[in-house]
């Protein structure tokens, strides 16, 4: 039997240049070397992960592609929510919430039922920073509360199956397949 190579994959919503520029502006407001150390998510890697699939072989990948192509869903409207962290005790990720993607995520979960487990705690967000250390938590959270940004609304008319390759310098993403959502018009 021949060993199959596995690909590390996830399903995402990619963001328009305009939305990415707004996220980068938020990152610039947060960045303060005296409050925390870590790495910002590069402009090219900003996205919303709808489902992380992990490492999958080519047979499973083909089944994922087939099932995702069967999704019949309208384009979605998203908006920025608050800035936050997953754990106030052990801060590892700074994110901005995206509102409006939950139903599409559930549809993807339903289509992939039997191949992957259902997401129990999906929280729609864009990762802004990967944090190594926070020097003063109170100042850090006070700073996050003061960040000002427009709560913009925007539409997304497709989602993607993405391959993630890990390197010492970070992750690199490449599109495997694009799936269109139905237009309102």
Task: Provide structural commentary.
By secondary structure, the protein is of the alpha+beta class. The chain has one domain (7-179): Cyclic Phosphodiesterase, Chain: A, CATH 3.90.1140. Helices cover 25% and strands 41% of the residues. The strands form two sheets. A five-stranded antiparallel β-sheet has the order 2-6-5-4-7. A hairpin with a 2-residue loop joins strand 8 and strand 9. It is globular, with a radius of gyration of 18 Å. The mean pLDDT is 92.
Tell me which oligomeric state these chains represent. single chain
The overall strand count is 9
| Shape assignment | globular
- Proportion of strand residues: 35-45%
CATH class: Alpha Beta
Radius of gyration: 18 Å
Report the mean per-residue pLDDT as an integer: 92
Question: What is the structure about, briefly put?
Answer:
With 185 residues, this protein is of the alpha+beta class. The protein contains four helices and nine strands.
Features:
single chain, 185 residues, alpha+beta, Cyclic Phosphodiesterase, Chain: A, five-stranded antiparallel β-sheet, four-stranded antiparallel β-sheet, 4 helices, 9 strands
List the helices and strands and how they pair.
Blueprint lengths: L6 E8 L2 H14 L5 E5 L6 E10 L1 H12 L6 E10 L7 E7 L2 H10 L13 E10 L2 H10 L6 E4 L1 E10 L2 E11 L5
Antiparallel strand pairs: 1-3, 1-8, 2-6, 4-5, 4-7, 5-6, 8-9
